[in-house]
Structure to design on (443 residues):
């Protein structure tokens, strides 16, 4: 049989009820009070550190041109690094120099276009593209003892494959940005550069697979993957660009990498600076 | 400072876009037929290349036709075909490749000019997907013509754009 509860007893339910009332009262008082009277000496429920919001960012023609410029600087820096490794044969160096000069011309043209549109030129490499794509790829070629990455056994081939991938990335970026750019004249200017990148890629594909075998799409019989091709299809592709580089495994394969055109988290927004 | 655009561009081609795209389509049809002649006359490597590149122009023509619908021209640019097809057959492989490279560069220049005028996004995106392939084809054909000079491979003359006054639709 249950014993009737004493009304004056201090039981758990009453404690919670009174405690809840006290907390609610404190919250109301805190809300009504002035902020300068609230102590910040120790953490309190309902308080959080002050945060600074990101600046408002719109994807404008200027932002797209700045991002394209950042890619050009990625290519300029990458070709400098590639030439500096000292592994490329003499016959390839003039090609590297020419392509790097082309990218410098593209960057200069983009800076002019950005200024003409009222924006601030972005004349440095895209840090996110460098971090995500280029640095890991170069490590696979040169090796990194600290990370346990062995150097590639075919560094020259791999450097050409990397350059081919980056040129394809640049060509695809300009093509993709045409659908985002609002001004027809700017679209035309963008693709004037984009078609240059496509020609670079065509030259590199034929250097990787010579004697006319690198013109049309083909499959690597060992890996089953697509070989680089000078003319890979009837239309410029916007799909991810995949290629394999690095130390050849016992199975005869290399590390597969994938590049995508710069998206919202890698654009050179107008608030960003070098 | 924000860009100067105040309204979003249209998705579909405008009437002016359709006229420009239809002109480009007539040139693509002509290129299909020029490559057919080149393929028939060529041998070995150039034959395979001409067949492949002709197929790419056919794909471009089909996509432009699909975009334009009933506004699409159904025939090739006759004057352009008449003036350019003879040189695509009958000469040496190197001469043929050099001629086709010149035509590809002219097509790239024409498409770039068209792209710089189009208002609609769909037409612009399609033309932008055709340009890099025709530029690659030009680069390959320059190589097949016997030149390894990067200046030749990268050469694009905006003045080479095919002129509607010279080659009317």
């Amino acid at each position: 049989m249950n014993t009737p509860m004493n009304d004056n007893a201090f039981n758990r339910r009453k404690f919670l009820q009174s405690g809840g009332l006290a907390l609610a009262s404190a919250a109301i008082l805190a809300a009504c009070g002035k902020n300068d009277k609230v102590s910040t000496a120790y953490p309190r429920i309902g308080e959080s550190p002050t945060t600074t919001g990101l600046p408002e960012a719109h994807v404008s023609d200027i932002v797209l041109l700045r991002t394209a410029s950042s890619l050009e600087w990625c290519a300029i820096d990458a070709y400098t690094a590639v030439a500096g490794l000292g592994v490329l044969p003499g016959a390839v160096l003039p090609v590297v120099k020419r392509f790097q000069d082309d990218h410098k011309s593209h960057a200069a043209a983009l800076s002019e276009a950005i200024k003409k549109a009222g924006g601030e030129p972005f004349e440095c490499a895209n840090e996110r593209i460098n971090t995500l794509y280029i640095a890991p790829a170069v490590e696979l070629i040169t090796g990194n003892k600290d990370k346990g990455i062995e150097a590639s056994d075919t560094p020259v081939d791999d450097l050409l494959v990397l350059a081919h991938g980056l040129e394809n990335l640049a060509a695809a970026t300009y093509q993709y940005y045409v659908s985002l750019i609002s001004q027809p004249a700017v679209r035309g200017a963008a693709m004037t550069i984009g078609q240059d990148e496509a020609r670079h890629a065509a030259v590199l594909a034929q250097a990787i697979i010579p004697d006319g075998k690198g013109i049309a799409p083909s499959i690597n019989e060992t890996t089953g993957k697509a070989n680089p091709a000078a003319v890979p299809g009837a239309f410029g592709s916007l799909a991810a660009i995949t290629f394999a580089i690095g130390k050849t495994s016992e199975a005869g394969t290399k590390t597969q990498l994938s590049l995508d055109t710069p998206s919202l988290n890698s654009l050179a927004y107008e608030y960003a600076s070098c | 400072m924000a860009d100067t655009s105040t309204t979003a561009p249209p998705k579909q081609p405008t009437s002016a876009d359709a006229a420009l795209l239809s002109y480009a389509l007539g040139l693509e049809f002509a290129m299909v037929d020029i490559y057919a002649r080149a393929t028939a006359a060529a041998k070995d490597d150039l034959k395979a290349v001409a067949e492949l590149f002709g197929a790419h122009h056919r794909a471009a023509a089909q996509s432009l036709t699909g975009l334009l619908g009933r506004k699409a021209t159904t025939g090739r640019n006759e004057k352009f075909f008449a003036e350019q097809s003879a040189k695509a057959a009958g000469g040496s492989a190197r001469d043929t490749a050099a001629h086709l490279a010149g035509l590809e560069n002219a097509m790239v220049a024409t498409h770039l000019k068209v792209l710089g005028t189009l208002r609609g996004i769909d037409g612009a995106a399609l033309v932008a997907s055709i340009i890099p392939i025709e530029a690659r084809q030009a680069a390959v054909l320059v190589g097949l013509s016997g030149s390894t000079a990067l200046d030749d491979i990268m050469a694009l003359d905006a003045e080479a754009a095919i002129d509607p006054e010279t080659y009317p639709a």
